[in-house]
Amino acid sequence: xxxxxxxxxxxxxxxxxxxxxxxxxxxxxxxxxxxxxxxxxxxxxxxxxxxxxxxxxxxxxxxxxxxxxxxxxxxxxxxxxxxxxxxxxxxxxxxxxxxxxxxxxxxxxxxxxxxxxxxxxxxxxxxxxxxxxxxxxxxxxxxxxxxx
Length: 148
Fold this sequence. Notes:
The protein has helices spanning 52-65, 70-87, 91-105, 109-128, and strands at 4-8, 13-16, 19-22, 27-31, 37-39. With 148 residues, the chain is of the alpha+beta class.
């Protein structure tokens, strides 16, 4: 594994192999071997897991933060994701869920969290009633008056 260097702000927490650490001043850490870690900015509290995708995210997060209880979190994840696939018709959300499922199955929960984080804004838009443009609708013309 290549060395991974992380910069943390004063008071920031990091979760490494189930341990919670807080730095008292701005610091940098170098992770020299394979570890499971999660930055505080990517952690959601149980009380904030208020939507289906956030609840799924929370389950994956628990696999990283609580290694001793990872099997229980994985079981809950395996029972939950099919229900979400049945509930969502949005192709991007469904693809994001399936990406997360594949990553969890490959023992890559950190990457599964990234996949789920990318689709949470789509879920938020659906819940709030805001339409989400597809990739084609979001294209911006190169020049005014140009045709695509």
